[in-house]
Amino acid sequence: MSDAHVSKFRQKLITEDRSYKQISEDILDTLEAPPTKGWFIGFSLSALVLTIGTIVILYQVTTGIGTWGLNKTIGWSWDITNFVFWVGIGHAGTLISAILLIFRQRWRTGINRAAEAMTIFAVACAGIFPLIHAGRPWLLYWVFPYPNTRGSLWVNFHSPLLWDVVAISTYLTVSLVFWYMGLLPDLASVRDRTKSKMRKFIYGIASFGWNGSTKTWHHFEVLSLILAGLATPLVLSVHTIVSFDFATSVIPGWHTTIFPPYFVAGAIFSGFAMVCTLMILTRKIMNWENYITVGHIDAMCKVITLTGTLVGLAYGTEFFIAWYSGNEYEQYAFINRATGPYWWAYWSMISCNVISPQFFWFKKLRRNMTFVFIISIFVNIGMWFERFVIITTSLHRDYLPSSWAMYSPTWVEIWTFIGTFGLFFTLFFLFIRFLPGIAVAEVKSVYRYARENK
Amino acid sequence: MSKFEKNDNCGTSCGCGSQTEGYWQDVENKVLDPQAVSKEFQDGEFDSFSVEKSRRSFLKIMGFSVTALPLTGCIKIPVKKAIPYLHKNDTVIPGVANWYASTFKGVPLLVKTRESRPIKIEGNDKSMTTMGGVGSQQQASVLSLYDSNRLNGPTISGAEVEWAEFDQKLKEDLKAAKESGKEVLIITPSISSPSEITLIKEFTKAYGAKHIAFDGTSDYSQVKANEISFNAKAKNSYDFTKANVIVSFGADFLGTWGNSSTNTKQYVSRRDPSSSEGMSRHIQIEPVMSLTGSNADYRHTKSLKDSRDIILGVLKSLTGEGPGNTSNNDIVSGIVKELKANKGKSLVISNDSDINVQVVINKINQAVGNYNSTISVMKSDYKICADDMAFEQAVNSMNDGNVAAALFVDVNPAYSFHNSKKFESAVKKVSTVVSFALSNDETSVLAKYNATANHTFETWSDSLVSDSELSFTQPVIQPLFGSRMYTETLMSLMGKSGSFHDYMKSFWSKDFYPKSSGFATATDFWNKSLHDGVVSLDGLSKAASISSMNASSYAKKVASIEYSSGLNIVTYQKTAIMDGDMANNPWLQELPDPITKATWDNYVMVSPMYAKENSIKTGDVVTLKSKDHSVTLPAIVQPGTEKNTVAVAVGYGRKVAGKVARNLGENAFAFYTYNRGATQTADSFGTLAKTGKFKGLAQTQTHHSMEGRDIVRETTFADYSKNPKAGNEKKAKLVNIYPPDHKKDGHQWAMAIDLTKCTGCSSCIISCNAENNVSVVGRQEVANRREMHWLRIDRYYKGDENQPEVMHMPMLCQHCENAPCENVCPVMATVHSSDGINQQVYNRCVGTRYCANNCPYKVRRFNWFNYDRSDKLANMVLNPDVSTRTRGIMEKCSMCIQRIQEGKLQAKRERRDLKDGDIKLACQQSCPGDGIVFGDMNDKDSKIAAFLGSDRNYTVLEELNVRPRVSYLTKVRNK
Amino acid sequence: MKKDYVIATFECDEKVLHATEKVVAKNIDIYDIYTPFPVHGLDEAMGIKRSILPYVTLLAGLTGMILAFSFQMWVFNISWPVNFGGKPFMSVPSFLPITFEFTVLLGAHTTVAAFLAINKLFPGKQPTIIDPAQTEDKFIMAIDKEKANVDDLTNLLKEQGAVQVEVQNLDLSI
Amino acid sequence: MKKLFGALVALVAFGAFGAFVVTQARQIGFNQGYQPDQPIAFSHAKHAGDLKIDCKYCHFGADKGRHAGVPPTELCLNCHAKVKTNSPEIKKIQKAVDSGENIQWVKVNHFPDFAYFNHSQHVNVAGFDCQKCHGDIQTMDVVKQEKKLNMGWCIECHRGNEIAPPEDHKRAAGGDCSKCHY
After folding, report:
1. pLDDT digits over B305-331, tens only?
2. If you ran DSSP here, which 8-state letter would residue B844 be given?
3. Which residues of chain A from 289 to 318 reach within 8 Å of chain C, CB to CB?
4. What is the DSSP letter of C19?
């Protein structure tokens, strides 16, 4: 940063000129101020939805899975659809913080904190479904291979569900520590800025005694790189393993070798869309337009277009391979997707996932916040349908026509799903209220980017 | 399997409904106490562990957080009581099953009891008649025994009284009736019990009464026709084993018509393409698809009128008598050709309730020489057949006030008589009405006296199951309620002392012992017969002389039958529910109809053509109106229904019945009419109108085409004769990535199902339910596609939807060697056993349902809820060797693992090797067609090894390389 | 363990970097520099040794990998072999996902634990804060008073743009 | 240093507590050592030990079927109609038989319902002594649950007798789940 030359192609990452102190004030002063009316309304609404969701889940767990619309043919539908949906969303944060860190994409600093938080909250939402989808969730600790009095009776390491358990818990915990380590300098900053004794005490505990020592910063940067290096294959492996749930099965429409890359691309796609949705809202509510710039949104839209097109390619490949395989069950499964009773789900998926991101070829549209917001919502709807199409339409008509059946969700399933949005937004509102929503230290470190020396 | 004589002294007294909890197995409520099980047979209160149980569940809920509790040492061990028998009884060893021979609805069977509690029915293979065949109603009868709607004892005008008081009052009333000079009637169904008939004769003598036999759906037309033709008031006896050609006009002889278990056994024995006799050929002409029609080689969808026209045509061609036919010449000539080629070796049967049609059928059979070859008419004093005309007259007589007393034994005319309103008003004019119902029904509520009778399994009786075979009915449990055998009530009314057991024993030594040979004493004869359950004797019946007759005039009468305009309303019986007398049995209600696959309902069957023209979809609620009756029911579009015919099943619409049967569907007996001297089952005509409402049917299968997939493999007999591999040429090339790593020595269990022998009768499903404690889930849950049956029968249609070919395929866990379900369970709740069984460990299951998703055959069943086990009486039927499953647990066919274990253990106890046939699975045992074979495929001489080596053997979805242990033999049609 | 330190406060990252280079060039050991964000090149300028964290990660990851794989192998071949859908007892592909995940799990968490341990960071620690703004916008250099001539050093630092230089008695070990 | 020591103590205490909780948790549902009072002071030490009455005289189901069975109350009177008729305990039995109010023994050895155990398989086929699972019953005045009776205990024995995997699939298939669970 010592050279005075500034490229004219480089865009400033923080658009307006601010001092370091002002950056801290812009971001951290919200933690000191009483909550705004908008925050309060948003939080209350989310908490209400979460409460309803919790009650519904309690009802379901005490009454039985029968309260859902599943049947002998369709053993999974909304539960696992929602699970994969949320896991998919939970991919953007780690991707932004890990892969973009390795690729030295400096623009990530504006959004990585919130995106990582979103990852953790989304994975937490996802984690609910494997728990509650089990018939006897109170016995789910049996999936862990602990020594026991049964002989010892271990677990089935062949089962993709067990891989899921290990992958998701690894991903959740690694993302959590990665995120929390990044929070330490900012928490220390809050601790040192605040006047309130209470906050000083709490943030004092939470910041682990961080003092900004260069020795610590040195290890910190190495740690960030290591965690990024570990998280990159991890984030790719998680959705690969989630796709194994289907890919290793025998059901036509599930038994597909293309699934790992297809699922990972889809996850990044939906994750970035969700980040867009949240960032467009957050920059508006928190007045962070200076830090989460149009440039950020623009960059994310490019990723969305790329991954959306990849996903479209995967859809086409699936059809081609189904035809090319000459396998009648496989062929029927795909024709049934497009023309069977659930055709509307399939075509919703195609229009939302493949067609809608193509608008982002136009720079004007990429920089129109309202438009991006709408498309990002569409992408998330489309990605939900993708999982619904894969899971439900593959199951509802498999090998023996005698067992073919239809599925429709009950109010319990619908409210459980809505409830997870309640959890997600409750956590997100708490996050922007009590934790630094933007990585202050990192933003300061890139402030000079594309700027003259002082 | 050993059989023991019934020990009359099976306990000190009965439990009389004071049941206790905790004698069945349950994964969650884990208590089985052999002594508690036997509690029902002893006195004394038994308060088990209810307090401790709630403590246990509390602990379970609290989970790990209460693990600190033992720290304080305050945890107490749940107290379980072990209560022994009070008195010694050498025949009952806790945990060891006893088997007793008995009879239900004319089928000899064996009753399995555990700790003196009947829990399972199997066929009695000592019977020469049924040869071990048993139907779904027999299988389900054991649950009806534990029907908590049964009456607790005798009632007078609804009030419970003691038997002594009851007897005294009724005696007075009957005496008054006798002295009034008016008629005294005793109405029973058709009876074939020699000792009961003898007793009833004595009763009629004592009270000057008249005995009338009444069946809701009777064979009166056939009996009457035999009287006309051969002067023999008897039903036909058929021998399907001798028939090369079977022409059936609407008779569902494999399902609901005649003794279907026997018929199936005989019929299927001639459906083996590899036998030297060759296959029989079966032609069915019917207006609606029946189970029998679905098995026919050639099936013609024809209206009732056309069917009769064809019968006339056949008569004309064979004998020249009658007016002949006006249409369907090709069918007539086809039938005539087959009949002429197989003289004396064919069968023509009809279920037509018109007497004249039956006379014509008699003449046709006579013309081709079938009498005393494939058909015999046997007169017997030990059988009384229902008489439509007599009962019709009896109702009129009651209506005219000429009847002073009427005793209704095991009949329910207020429900099953065609004009129930007339019957009700008639019965009200009878001063002394006695019902012998087990639980309240439409007739018993009209009666002043209810002499609550015993269930068959609490009853002594005998029955003539064929022309020369007698079968015992013996009680296998003390009466559960304060009921009494109806025969003993009659005896008491006659002032006779002693039990019916003694009466019967003396009757046997008088009437049957002289006919037997090789027994030193009458008691020896009695004991041996009782032990075996069945005995064959000569001289029980006498063949009628088949004299020649001219059927011209009858044919003319048939031709002149008038048909109204509109839709012909045909009634039929469903395989499980039949006449509706067992409608309160949830197993039967939940058994899918073999054709429609619908449960818990009756409905209006319409043809696809009619449905298209009138845009009716399955589930549309329609109103079917005849001249004087109308029903509002959902419609079902049924392939193979004649265009202008609609069909409704009887047996539904019970108004006074237990809570299971009450208000399910509508009563179709009202579409019966009394016409031309007999009750006509298909003489109503009417119109159909949509109501605009929709009521989804609880069907277990909603997609009826195989979609061209290679699931049921089939061929014709002609092709098979040329090449035994016909239809089964495809062989998938299977590639394994892994080298085989698992030994296949020792026993390796396998099953094979012959699709040619499977008629789809569904007896196996009920047998499986009873053996494996499969839950009943109810109408709504079946409609939600959540039935629990471990074994289902898939039914596919092929070809023209008006004349479809039907395929039945029993589908159960295929016990794949490379089972896809096993890989995916995270907790090892389903793994493979060393003898080749796909095991499901209920107590380990956490319920992810991944295994069910990954099952290509979709045979796994999930407990979506805790299914109702609150009826403690009904819980008595549970098999104590099989855990019941609570919610959240996956279950599926276990290959009756408890039977395999028991069979192996039995052999080990006897220090011998296991023989082929030692282990019979529940479905296999109950299959009247012997279509299911099970055994050790490593035993080269076993039946299963022969089946596996057959050219017809294949596995479903072979190309998936899951290597099922259940294989199928191709279906062969005799074309 | 309180000690006297020369405390220099800077307001610009560039300046503190230049100052560090100058001070190190004079062979004076800098005790530490407290900055609100990682100043690029400062650690090198101070001559801080390379972190051992990568080796910790490698070791922990390898341990995780070996543990996970050998445990699965032991369970299915020695402890309790079970036939799952006809798969062989030693079906390596099935063991790979868990092996990988466990490698990452152990690697990541051990590294984080090592990071916290090396830097003595733990919840509730009360560090010595020289100036509350050191986590906001001040760059604070601390040099052991005994390691240099205070006056020369003060001049040098002022020359390099330190806004304030003073000697403070502090316990910087926490 | 002091802090470090404190942390170490805390860690050890936490670990010990955890281990204790886990050991205790593993005992839940297993009642080894359970020795409840019985309604009749029947002594196995007297009958099986001193008098050497064959176990199967009373528990006659043991070599025939699933349950060994508590003997019918009347069976006691085979001898006690003449022997020790004045004992208050025998009087209780006599009263139970006369009145029909049966004796309610407290069950000692208990298996959960989802585990099928067949006495004849072990007593008759394998030829084990009762003591193998019930302990030295002939010395017990009051019967006690001697063994753990949990699945690990079953498996241990089956492994020792080479009928559980991995050693032998053929001999008895003793390690298959559905040997006991169905």
Report:
1. 999 999 999 999 988 888 888 888 899
2. G
3. none
4. H
